[in-house]
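Lab meeting tomorrow. Please check the following:
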Amino acid sequence: MHCGKTPYTTWMHRQLRRLHDGVRATTVVFLLLIGLLLGPVASVQAQPAEPLALNLETMVELGLRDSYRVRQLQLEVERTRSLLSAEQAGLKSRVTLNVSAPQFQAISDNKWNSTLQRNELVRENTRRYQFDLSVRQPVILFGYPTNGVLSLNNRVYRYTQIDGDSQDTRFYNRYFIAYDQPLFQPNRMRNDLEGARLNLEKSELKYQSDVVGFIDDLASDYFDLVSDAYKRDAAEEFVRDLDAAIAVARELVANAPARASEADLLQVESVNAQESVSQTQSSLRNRGETVKQRLQLPPGTEIAVVVDLAIVPVSVDVEEAVRLASTTTPRIRQLEIGRRENEIRLDETRGNNALKVNLGVTYGREVQDPRFQNLWREPRNSYTVEVNATVPIWDWGQRRHRIQAQQFSLDHAVLSQERVRSEVETDVRNIVATLTDYGRRVTTMQKTLTLAHQLTLSTLDRYRTGDEGLADMLQALGREKTTSNNYLNAYLGYQRALRRLQEVTFFDFEAGRSVVERFGVATVPSTGR
């Protein structure tokens, strides 16, 4: 059965078509809006990241920020700092509670009976519950540990003796003050505290020395990077000069075909020079990857090095440099600490197997009663005085030889300190002389390089006019290349001497302040654990 179109169906088809066209238009508008919104984002993402401008300050900052080596050194300082805190805490009050609850004894033992004048096998059957509370305080006078200990004590116990079916129970309470003082012995409180302080100072000095050494390693990497970049630029400049000479040679060959070999010779030199450019670029790329790995930079990071070999020669006062190297550097202070540690060990060695006297005094109140409630009623005075002495008589010279051995160690430390001071003075004077010489050479080579480049240009002009031959042209190019290399070597020598002086004196003569202050490594911040 065939149905024709009615007005209703025609109206419905028209409305569906309008809806379809509206949806399609809305979809197009929606897609356009998405494109407008995402377009700037995509363009931003497509833009290459800016190269990281690398100079010495930036390299040191990045190297110290994420260095595993620096963090390990900081942990070592924190360890010795905690040990010092432990020693300092040992000079404060300490509270202890000793508990024996219970202590049962049912045992037979031989004991002397003074009445019968013979040994008897005695059966002991006791029950004991005891508590000892003590507050101990090392005695410090005017900040000086005296090696003595003052304590407040309280002893309470319950003691029961069992004999068959009978029991005898007693309670005991005593609270007293006690003072113990060793005499004629090394002051171990003072020595342990000073030893902990010296250990902390040694670890901080080692931290400073190693960090400055790490900074020197970073500086070496940076100047190696500068050297490779300079060699690349110099090689590219040499290629440009050869290309200019080849262009001139081709002009000459057009007028004198017999000189065609000159253009070929220059072309060979240009190919070799381009190979040198490729080698320097490869070396620079490898050096950059090594630097990025050391600085823990993302693999895709691009670094840019500004090559500028111009310097302002530093004026160094030799006597001031010697004074800094001989008095303020960690190396000298470490030698002084080693000497002091040997003095402490000598003091402790003298105290071994020597006369020792221990004085102990107590005074308090005590109560003994069958009833626990009466332990704080009507106490009686109690005191003790005790003097113990150890007097060495004969040890076949053992103590004397040990003291001699430790004295030799102390003398060795003193001689090492004097030797290092003498070596440091000589080393500083040589470094300053080398630095001055390299500074003069850098200034001279900088002017000479400018002159050599001008001579190359003038030789190229004379080669064009026929006043100079090819040999003169090649000699001028080689002279400029040699001068460029000498300039770079003088610059690197100057920087090495400056870093060496900085490492020996711990003073930055360019910035006019201490190295540890300039790079913020004077102290290690506490983690507060």
